[in-house]
Amino acid sequence: MSSESPAAADAADPLRQAAETMHAVRERCVWSQRITHRDLVPYLIEESHEVIDAVESGSRDDLREELGDLLWQVLFHSAIAAQDPDDPFDIDDVARTLTEKMVRRHPHVFAGEVAETPEQVLVHWNAAKAAEKRTRRSVLDGVPRGMPALALAQKLAGRAAGVGVAVESAAAPASEDELGEALLALVATARAQGWDAERALRERLRVLEDDVRAAEAAS
User: Fold this and answer.
1) What is the 3-state secondary structure (H, E, C) of 18-83?
2) Could you give the CA distance from residue 112 to residue 106 in angstroms, rounded to a whole number?
3) 104 in helix, strand or coil?
4) pLDDT single digits (tens) 104-134
5) What residue spans define the domains of the chain?
6) CB of 164 within 8 A of CB of 147?
7) NTP pyrophosphohydrolase MazG-like domain: from which residue to which, for each copy (predicted)?
8) How far is Cα 93 from Cα 60, in angstroms, rounded to an integer?
């Protein structure tokens, strides 16, 4: 590789410049050379949460910076993947796959279908996604179990509803603020009782998953 900096090599294309910068780091930085996909997972989680913080309470400069840090994680994973001896792919393959998927899932933009409401857009999206995932046997397939328990609960409740498994609702808060108060009160109750709120929710979710799979088997 040339000793010329990536910035000088391709200043006209910032995304390509970022990819070339990552390539140089992967080749020349002894720490980066040793990093695996698994090693990067904690950093990916951390950077994702920093983006969320920037969205919720940061400045525009904060958001721009944190989005860049998250993009770096994608570039890093792609650089690692490019060196796989059995099934290599690089950032161009990642981008190509993404573009193909987004074109398929937006037929109202690229293929002459009509969607005049957000609900109609969702119909097209779900139909395209279902066609892509034909090999999946359960609505639970593809749900990442590493999600925080509360986010996982919201995802699984939606999947459960899709197969007719109802999750009993508590008293309905009138706003997200009231919902936050109710959730915090439940966590405070768990703390006072010496219970682990995260574990309690995850254990309940395992029961919900069993109920969903039973409903699918019976259908």
Assistant:
1) HHHHHHHHHHHCHHHHCCCHHHHHHHHHHHHHHHHHHHHHCCHHHHHHHHHHHHHHHHHHHHHHHC
2) 10
3) helix
4) 999 999 998 999 999 999 899 888 888 887 7
5) 6-89, 91-134, 145-218
6) no
7) 36-110
8) 30
Give the pLDDT of residue 146: 83
- The domain 6-89 is placed in CATH, from the list 2.60.34.10, 1.10.287.1080, 3.10.580.10, 2.40.50.140, at 1.10.287.1080
**Tokens read off for 165:** 């498994």
Share of the chain above pLDDT 70, in %: 95
Q: Using CA atoms, how far apart are residues 157 and 202, in angstroms rounded to an integer?
A: 13
Q: What is the CA radius of gyration of the chain?
A: 22
User: What band does 4 get if pLDDT is binned at 50, 70 and 90?
Assistant: low
Report how far residue 75's alpha carbon sits from residue 15's, in angstroms, rounded to the nearest whole number: 10
- Stretch among 1-5, 33-37, 111-115, 135-139 having the lowest mean pLDDT: 1-5
